[in-house]
Structure formats: C-alpha cells, structure tokens
Design brief:
seven-stranded mixed β-sheet; two-stranded antiparallel ribbon; 287 residues; 2 domains; single chain
C-alpha cells in the first residue's frame, strides 16, 4: 500500500528513536529528502502527498542501513557544519556540533588581528573547521593540511562547493612529523586531531567504530600523541604572538594545557562546548 511522505517520516522517526538515535527527527528528514531528491522546504510542502513506489523503496533501504548503524552523513554523502554544506565520505570524520566552539574561538582570536591573516587547519579531514573560518573571516587565507589523500580529496570538493577557491588551499602534511619548510609564519594554527586512546576505540559506539576512519580517531596509547607532536614540532610554524587552538577529548584538557605550557605557550585558556565539556585549549606563542 502506498504511503504518504508524512507516514514515511513518522515511521522512520519512531524506528530511529527505538534504536536510541539522539537526532531521530533530523535523521528521518535527511534520509527522506535524499531518497525523494527534495529540499527540506519541498518535503514539508509535499508531506500529505503519496510517495512514488521507487522513492519509498529507496527510502526504506536507506533507513534499514541506518538502523543497522551506518551514519546518515555517509548514507547521503553530505552534512552541514556551521551552516556550510559539506561533502562527506567514509574517508573523513563526520563534523560534530562540539567542534563549533573551536571555530568560534579561532574567529575571536583572528578578529583582533590586523591585515591579511594566514591560518593552518592541521588534521583538516573534511576541511570543515578551516572552511568555516574562511567563510566568516574574509581576511583569512586558509591552508587545509592532512596526511590522508582521501581526506584531502574531500577537502578540495568542499572548497569548490563553498566557492572558497581564492582563499583556501590544501597540502599533504603529517602532524606527527616536522612540518615542511614551506609551512611557516601562520597567525593561527587550529587542529582537531585524533584523540581517542587506542584501547578505547573498541568501546566506541558502533556507528563510529565500524564506519568512521580510525586514522582520524586513534590518538595513541593515552590519546595525546598528536598534542605532543604539535607542541614539540609545529610551533615554529607560528609567527610571534600567533595562536594555537586544539580541540580535546573528554577529560584531556588538563593534560593538554600542561603540554602547551611545557612548550612555552602563554595565555593558555580552555573553553567548554554547549554540553559544558572542556573542548578547546588555546595558547599564544612567545612574542
């Protein structure tokens, strides 16, 4: 029997809630929009109408994959971050709302700096952080750096998708190694590096553990490998008085603050995300 779009949406929302989705309404809408090839406004308009059989079949197949754990962003190939539409693939992490505090604090630091600004997004993944900074700070030239060729490919797609080719570029760089000599004199380095302790990866939610790239998750034995490397090897890439800002995992802020201090950074502060979790540590290079 044919179903209306509204019926499909309500059935999906109910099923997603039953498996513990925290965003059942959003996920049901995104899957139905994708299956029907409609914008959200078009879907709301057409909710009382009957969906074509092909649309319903496609939607139920997508919903079944989601109920088995596959993230919506990978199913539809895109996600939104700080209002920017982004291409997403299993080669990059799915952007989280938690990371928006990293963007906000980076923008706050850049706002007080004059002239043209150089920003490095290290461990850039999809490019979400660097692109959000570039979209909101017209004086910023942003470089997206990652060790993964697949991630850089997605980053380049997102640069084009958001029309930022004139101010954002990419490069291959490993945050665990010393930076290439060409990477220097940045006003700000921002990084959301891998920070999950290796032993904890097996306990992650299956939607993360089974689908998101472990290269972007595994922070080493204690989760701090990348913070140690960045503070030991990358600070010479900052100009005098430049800022380093890093996202950190739950319970890691104290340890990362100590690494910042040991490296000689000053004006060290930590900021919480919307859930009250200490999420971003910042420090300024000696000037």
């Amino acid at each position: 029997m044919a179903s209306t779009y509204n019926t499909l949406y309500l059935d999906a929302r109910r099923a997603l809630k039953a498996v513990g989705s925290d965003n059942a309404q959003l996920e049901a809408l995104e899957l139905l929009c994708f299956a029907a090839d409609k914008s959200r406004d078009q879907l709301y308009r057409d909710m009382p109408l009957y969906a074509a059989a092909a649309v319903e079949t496609r939607f139920r197949a997508l919903l079944d994959r989601r109920l088995q754990g596959e993230p919506v962003a990978y199913l539809i190939g895109e996600w939104s971050f700080c209002g920017l539409p982004l291409d997403i693939s299993p080669e990059v992490l799915i952007p989280r709302e938690d990371t928006e505090v990293l963007v906000r604090q980076a923008l706050a630091r850049l706002e007080s700096m004059p002239g043209q600004l150089r920003v490095l997004d290290l461990c850039a993944g999809s490019g979400c952080v660097g692109l959000a900074i570039a979209a909101r700070q017209p004086n910023a030239q942003v470089l997206l750096a990652d060790v993964s060729d697949g991630a850089l490919r997605v980053s380049r797609q997102n640069i084009r998708r958001n029309g930022l080719e004139s101010r954002v570029s990419t490069c291959h760089a490993d945050a665990l190694e010393k930076p290439p000599k060409a990477l220097w004199d940045f006003d700000l380095i921002v990084s959301n590096p891998p920070y999950i302790p290796t032993a904890d990866i097996g306990a992650l939610d299956p939607s993360v553990r089974l689908y998101e790239p472990h290269l972007a998750l595994d922070g080493g034995e204690d989760g701090l490998d990348f913070y140690r490397s960045i503070t030991e090897k990358w600070l010479n890439s900052l100009r005098l008085d430049g800022w380093l800002l890093c996202e950190v995992g739950l319970g890691q802020s104290d340890a990362v603050e100590k690494l910042f201090a040991r490296a000689g950074l000053r004006d060290i502060h930590t900021y919480a995300d919307a859930a009250g979790i200490w999420r971003v540590v910042e420090g300024r290079a000696e000037g």
